[in-house]
Design brief:
Rieske Iron-sulfur Protein, four-stranded antiparallel β-sheet, mainly beta
Length: 130
């Protein structure tokens, strides 16, 4: 699996989240107590964006109907996250093992807004981890 550079760690302070577009999927990236978690951004109940929810004691609370999911449980599809050289990388693979590339950053609530880089082809091999 290849890891794609998402953003510098300083762009995602503790307690904040970002919504990343990867192909047709959206990923909610959270910084909870200095550790990064990436999960599918869609609540299985009604499809609300989990990246706009809040975290309490390691549990993401859906902004739509207050459904709750542990960040580490695997109930919601997860993505592996690594850090290197003060940057955040997410392991992304599409169908048949192809890497999924992002399109545009989603609109975030004003309390969560910050710059989210767009990931597009061609990619820079120096910004990937094996």
């Amino acid at each position: 699996m290849k890891y794609v550079k998402i953003m510098p760690e300083e762009d995602l302070p503790i307690g904040k989240s970002a919504i990343i577009s990867a192909g047709e999927a959206e990923i909610a990236l959270f910084n909870y107590k200095g550790k990064y978690y990436a999960i599918a951004n869609k609540c299985p109940h009604r499809g609300s964006p989990l990246g706009e929810g809040r975290i309490e004691e390691g549990i993401v609370i859906c902004p739509g109907h207050e459904w709750r999911f542990k960040l580490e449980s695997g109930v919601i599809p997860t993505y592996p996250v690594k850090t290197k050289n003060e940057n955040i990388y997410i392991g992304l693979e599409g169908e048949s093992g192809n890497i999924a590339y992002g399109k545009i950053a989603s609109t975030l609530p004003s309390s969560l807004k910050f710059s989210v880089p767009t990931i597009q082809k061609p990619r820079n091999p120096e910004e990937e981890l094996d």
